[in-house]
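DATA SHEET
Item: assembly model
Revision: 1
Owner: S.N.
Input lines:
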Amino acid sequence: MNKLLEIKNLSVAIDTHYGKKDVLRDICLEVYPGEVLAVIGESGCGKTMLCKSIMRLLPRSAKIVSGSIIADGEDITGYSDRKMQSLRGRLLSMTFQDSLSALNPALSVGHQIGEAVSLHRPGLPKAQVRERVIELLESVEIHNPEQVYIMYPHSLSGGMRQRCVIAMALASEAKILLADEPATALDVTVQARILQLLKKIQKERDMAVVLVSHDPGVVAGIAHRVAVMQEGRIVENGITKDIFAVPRHPCTKSLLKNKPDFSKKSEISGETLLEVKNLTHDFVINKHSVIRAVDNVSFSVRKGEIFGLVGESGCGKSTLARCIMNIYKPYAGEILYKGINVCDKADFRSNRKILQTKRQIIFQDSSSSLNHSMRVADIIAEPMRLCGISPKRGTYLKEAEFQLYHVGLNSDFLWKKPAELSGGQRQRVAIARALSVEPELLVADEPLSSLDAAVQAQIVNLFNHLRDEHGFSFVFISHDLSMVKYLCHRAGVMYKGRLVELAPVDELFSNPLHPYTRTLISSVPDTDPASDWLDRFDRSGQDSFCTEGIFTEVSAGHFVLMEVHT
Amino acid sequence: MSHRELFDAEAVSQTAPGSFAKKLADSGFPVLSAALLGIIVLLCMGAELIMTKDPSYMHLESIHQPPCREFIFGTDSMGRDIFSALWYGGRISVLIGVLSAVISALIAVLYGAAADVAPSGIDTAMMRLADILLSIPSLLAVLFLQAILGRADVLSLSFVIGVTSWPAIAKVVRSEVRRLQSCEYVIASRCMGGGFFHILKMHFLPNLLPTVMFMVVMNIRGAIVAESTLSFLGLGLPLDVISWGSMLSLAEKSLLASGWWAIVIPGVFLITLLMCITNIGNWLRKSFSAGENNV
Amino acid sequence: MKSAVVYAVKKLLIFFAGIFVLSIIVFVMSRIAPGDPLVSYYGDRAEKMSASEKAAARERLGLDSSVYIQYIRWVGNAARGNFGISYKYRQDVSEVISRRLGNTLMLGGISFALVFILALLLGWFCARFEDRLPDRILCKTGTFVSCIPEFWLSLVLIFVFAVTLGVLPGGGAYDPGHSGDALNRLRHLVLPVAVLVMSHFWYYAYPVRNMLLEQTHADYVLTAKAKGMSSGAVMLKHCIPNIIPSYISFMAVSVPHILSGTYIVEAVFSYPGLGTLAYESARYGDYNLLMVICLLTGTAVILSNMTGQAIMEKINPAISAQKRGENL
């Protein structure tokens, strides 16, 4: 079979302030017609750079040092920009990671796709361009193409935008599609739908697709072959099944096995620490519109328990967390911490000390939750100073060092500022800060979502480990079901402000009752290439579920929002 | 399992602390500008030591001398020695610049803090008022105020320039405070029981300082320009109070007599000073915005 | 449709509230000012009046009543177009101003238009050569030129072109005996316009450059290129149209800056416009006149600010979307 794309010994370097830095080293790859090649690796390993070099869209500071790129029999390495223009879109096309910034915010979607259509067919009458755009929108399973045609990118949801970006890449019948993280930053159910779409399009058009992702689960169901990248090198390359079955390189092994070590979940006492009763919170936009972010939610957290809250973005998880921490004052309902009603002003005031020391929060974005002008030592000591706790180990500095050690950082970090740390290190500092006053309740609002997969696993291990040591209760909020499955004792599923299901984790995953929970669980990518989860995943595209009903206990500890049939 | 083993995947980077001077140069600190500015300001402060003549004495026998051995930079149309007047006048110009910037920063911070404490309705009204005050071109406002205050001296001029240039700072301070208030580390601090003064001291001041410093530096520059423009037009300092602006106000007469030195020399000094201040201000802005963006 | 009316009414209310506050500030300031207000009505005659004549005049003019009654009376007169008498010119203020307004509008308008176009072109050029030699040189030059005070630049240009070379006139609007001659008029405009353009367009080119760079670094530029568009076409069809609304609104907000410049340049070139008028009235304590000039300028500025804001809110869908996002 003829190779459609061949990359021979490609090396690319970037000029930085500190001299040349190699971003791609000696890359060899080939892509055959009608095949899906997956490129996986951690963030920063040069996957996107690789796509950009193939498209010859490298930033000016980056140069191809050696090697060649042969596309459809032509060596395009030395092609001028003008020559490349005729190839881009026609032979090669690319979709970019962030669909919001990949579309021009000031032009309608139809206009932008139309541009792609008419670029390679100049002189096509407007009516026909429009017809073609509608056809493209239909082919990416947009059911109301006429409406979407005139819409602007910001008024579309993330999934819809990604579909439009794919439609644009299909406009000129390119033979090779480079898809850079097409499913990242989307909710899990949407992610599964986009993957389904890609698979369908690839089969229908018999295109060659280079699929770039950091998540092996995403590519397992689609890719024929997989290339694993690490620090600009391809470290392993082969048939998907073989690589997933017998990973050879340590990097591949750690990518495939970036699940947390399964530690036995410790037993928990029956004592209730936190109780949330019929909590409701509204955001008032203006006189005419009010958004109910949290709607009649009740649950309780026992002492020493890890309680998970899952749901898509915008389902009210963060609002709930902030209500628990007294950042927002709930509109209705009660929150009892050790029997203290934290929403009641008088009750709060008389128990202020306990409430402020014994409950701590960890935020999603570690860069905005640490003050850039403070040193790590001061950041960690801040809650101790505030709560007037005298340091057990002599000085605040000693105490900070001790906490740092506990989250796995050495004392060199004491004098650093947050800007000098990586995302994972910053999140560790945030955890150390929260743990320094030895809280009984820790609320973590998506503590993993801004981190790399490997770092995520480390942090989850850390949480598990620290909980065993300190014995605090833990409300863990996440959109990632697999982490919840590993870490939590019980979990609640939220949808549009309602708690739709609540059960012990094992029960929840083996016997999901609410249709939304089922969709959510089936959309979790399976790293087994033989698994047909993608084909099994509900194709009807159900987007809305009933949020009316009564929260009833169906079996011991398993609650579900039941529709009331009249 | 030991703690260290858990995290070995994440490389611990260690950077050797460099010398202070090297760090400063690496951060793009405008060394040349700072040095020039330092020299000019020092010479102006010690004007008495290097002046060759009494700056306000009129050498009637040598009116309008081009630069020569006796008068290094020549004399103006009233026979005053430009070299001496330059240092002496620079002192007044710089003094007015600093004084008015301090006055405006003080008003701005007080106003911004008051708006922050006030209920939201009054807060909005206060910011609208600042908008309206900003809408009067500052030169007009200065003209108006100066006309009301009557004859200008160093203090009244600084006051007038300071009073008319605060709304811009106040608005920036206000929007920065708003941004900080929604920052998660401030929320976290509040959760831990951080009171108003704790948050002010630990979180607001260190983060506001670079912004305010940038605005103050730029205000010094603006005030020096305003002083020289006003004095040049004859609305600022009178002729007998020597400043760079009032020296230039004689320039129109020099023009007719082709006395380029009376225009060019004070002008070059003025522009050099402004340029140095601008560079330092830009560096300040860049260095604090870099701290935010690097994350 | 209904929301459009509500929007317009709201904007109008904000506009009038602004002018109301401004007029109060200006009026109170003019009353605090030293000097006998009678002088501003009667000029030298006021000094020759007897005490009883003065009292009668005060009563007639309403100067004996409290400040806010005076203010209401002043507003009532102003609404009928009567802003009082200019002491220096011994004429109605409105008449004095209307004679000069056209001149200022011409000078300011031409300079503004030139600054607008040149800044856009220069910013484009710099963005095109991002961080390469032409860009760096232009940016440094720009910082330098924007540090030169307008009055000094005017002096130097007068010295070179009017005094030394004698090719262009150094002041005024017409040569004596040439009033109404368009070509003569144009020759007089060259130097003031040159000063205004030179000292301002660098200042505005820099933000244009940065706005454009922000656009060219966005992913949608890569998407457009991946479709097969050339860099030039991407710049022309995507980047430039995207910055135009923010650029227009930015320029609208910058009106006071350029207006200040115009006033200074007018005063240096003794060009018969509002700036020279303001400068003279400040010198001679002609508060009636100064007050109206301030009010007029302030109104123009508030109007342009609001235009800028309205453009920002309406045209740019991304910005209004961000606003909506914040509300959530």
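QC remark: The CA atoms of residues 54 and 561 of chain A lie 51 Å apart.
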